[in-house]
Specification:
Number of helices: 3
Radius of gyration: 52 Å
Largest sheet: 4 strands, antiparallel
Distance between the termini: 120 Å
Helix content: 55-70%
Shape: rod-shaped
Oligomer: single chain
Strand order of the largest sheet: 4-3-1-6
Length: about 260
């Protein structure tokens, strides 16, 4: 028996050198793609719109930054606040600078309070003077009340005696024990006493009105001065101008030493 040999053709095997070249080419292509992507994302300048909202602050050093990227941009503030001062004065010093971030109630600047303190002291003296005058007024009212009671008694006794004298004279006149002139004189004495009492009451009422007006004016001046003092003392607590909210200082419209008007921004 003759058995034919089967011929099996084997594919040629790649050499190890060819494999290494293929891997090297593949690795090089991957590296080029990665470098291109990194250059696009990190180095290629792009215009971006971004909004600043919340921040976390912490102490950092230069070594904490791994890389720097320069980019042009424009920041639009969400809201602008002009700081105004509710009184006249002179700026003593700025505590912050343009571009500096601030939080609510941070001190922005200090105001020279010398003129304000002088006005407070002057108003305090005025309040104390009005208070003394009111106390003296009340003391005088007490003395005048006692004096009025005594004057009332004097006039009452005078009228009572004149009336008794007239009654007695009238009885005697009816009995023909006194002359008509005596009776007329007794009547005149009573009329004089009554007239003096009426004039006294009119003068007293006029004096009461004048005193009430004077007292009312004095009380008004006292209350006005006391209210003014309260307002000035409240302003003295505002010599350190504070930030109304969180934000950034954009600019300063006045320098230290500048004078400013009331409510000037």
């Amino acid at each position: 028996l003759v058995v034919e040999r089967s011929i099996v053709r084997e594919k040629p095997r790649r050499t190890s050198g060819q494999n290494r070249q293929l891997k090297l080419l593949l690795f090089t292509a991957v590296c080029i793609v990665l470098i291109a992507l990194a250059a696009y994302f990190f180095l290629w300048p792009k215009e971006e719109v971004f909004y600043l909202a919340n921040f976390t602050y912490g102490e950092v050093e230069l070594r904490d930054f791994h890389s720097w990227v320069n980019s042009a941009g424009k920041m639009s503030p969400k809201k602008l606040l002009d700081i105004s001062i509710p009184f006249e004065g002179i700026i003593e010093k700025w505590v912050v600078e343009p571009g500096q971030p601030v939080e609510k109630d941070d001190i922005l600047l200090s105001i020279n309070g010398q003129a304000l303190y002088e006005k407070i002291e002057e108003t305090r003296e005025k309040v104390a003077d009005y208070e003394k005058r009111l106390k003296r007024f009340k003391i005088e009212e007490g003395y005048e009340l006692l004096q009025r009671e005594q004057e009332e008694k004097v006039h009452s006794n005078r009228i009572e005696k004149a009336q008794e004298h007239l009654d007695l004279t009238e009885e005697l006149y009816k009995l023909d024990l006194v002359a008509l002139n005596d009776f007329s004189s007794a009547k005149d004495s009573l009329e004089v006493a009554l007239g003096e009492y009426e004039r006294y009451k009119m003068n007293r009422e006029l004096r009461d009105i004048q005193q009430e007006n004077s007292k009312g004016d004095l009380e008004k001046m006292f209350l006005k001065a006391r209210e003014e003092l309260k307002e000035l003392e409240e302003l003295a607590l505002q010599l350190d101008i504070k930030a109304p909210s969180d934000g950034y200082i954009l600019d300063q419209k006045a320098e230290a030493g500048d004078e400013f008007r009331k409510n000037q921004t």
